[in-house]
Amino acid sequence: MKFLDKYFTKEPCNTGRQFELDVFRFILIYRLAIVHVFVGGSPRAALDSLSIPYYFDSVVGGVIGATRFMIVMGIGLAYTRHGTPKEVFHRGIKIGIIGFLLNICRYLIPCLTGYAISGDKEYFIDSLPYLVFGNDILQFASLAMIFMSLLLLLKLTPGKIMAVALAMSVAGSFINNVDLNNTVLNVIFGHIIGVETKSGDPYIYSDFPLLIWFIFYAFGYLFGYYYRRLKDKKKFFNTVSPICLVIATAFCLWEIFGTFKGQTGFGMMMGEGDNVFYHMYTQEAVICIMACIGTLMFSYYLAKIIPEKFKKPIESVSRNVNTVYCIHWVIVWWTVYVIIYLIKGSEYIDNPLNAYILGLIISIVSMLLAEVWSKIKLNYKRKKRYEP
Questions:
Q1: Which residue has the higher pLDDT, 51 or 306?
Q2: Closest CA relative to residue 317, chosen from 17, 30, 18
Q3: Percent of the chain residues past pLDDT 70, beyond the cut
Q4: CA distances, 347 to each of 37, 53, 358 (Å)
Q5: Residue 273 pLDDT exceeds 60
Q6: Average pLDDT over the chain, rounded to whole?
Q7: How many Å apart are CA 58 and CA 223, to the nearest integer?
Q8: Judging by beta carbons within 10 Å of its beta carbon (0-12, 13-18, 19+), is residue 332 exposed, middle or buried?
Q9: Nearest-CA neighbor of 56 among 368, 296, 355?
Q10: DSSP track, 260-324
């Protein structure tokens, strides 16, 4: 198409690591612990009102948080040299195993420890099976990669994969908040469709159902395909990004104020509470995609002014995204849900400033530990390589 030829080359011209994408990942990663401390350490009333915890949960952790991780994951697939269907499938299996091990380390072990100390079965044990076997971002990533490997095996183009994802999102908008009246089935099918238990205990709400969230991974792959071929990044970020940012901001404000004025028809992405975001509608998914494109502009210009001495650490954190994610969650759960709870009898942190500082400390510690772990793995590989 002549229109596309004006903006894109036929062969990739932006190859290798793109520093603005590393900056983008770094910004996402450093806020992980802060968001999760606010979500876990805030009373329900704070998450259900226009407040600082609501902002960190629904905006920072939601619209400009989780969805962008999926998009970045898709961009990574477009850039990787290991993107064959077999390699993507194996990567999905590996991520799934890591996700299950993480659930053992951040849920099973801390909760059993907390129960052994306190004897509080309702708090530490009742929801444990759902926590250990339920779906989170790594479980979603695993299923998304496995499903993507099938689409790649069928030799679908990025555009056709995006069309499949869009159809899935539309279907997910209708097959939503389903209760199968069985705890085991709700946990299993919650990985695929939006599940919400209405029939009794334990309460189950699926966080990243494949049908609803695959659109972000697919868009990332499509975006990465064209980003590699983009002739003029500056022109793109000066024209497309501002438009996307304005539209996304206006829509989110419309939903926020509509929700808290008790009006209907605003969707659910910016609704009350810390769960509704995960069962968004297609139009809201499109808004999240636009928010990603819009905010990527800031990373592009920030990347141009970051001193050289900071570039390598930022790239290192960007490479270690999965490791940072796992480490920070283990620390957050032990700190907020176990230690603070055992000390206070509640996991809530009264002062938002204290929550922010605690989250920031955990974030820094997680990034440092991830770097240490990365060096240990690298040294192990080198040792194995040169062993006779």
A1: 306
A2: 30
A3: 93
A4: 10, 14, 13
A5: no
A6: 90
A7: 24
A8: buried
A9: 355
A10: HTT-SSS-STT-SSSSGGGG--HHHHHHHHHHHHHHHHHHHHHHHHS-HHHHHHHHHHHHTHHHH
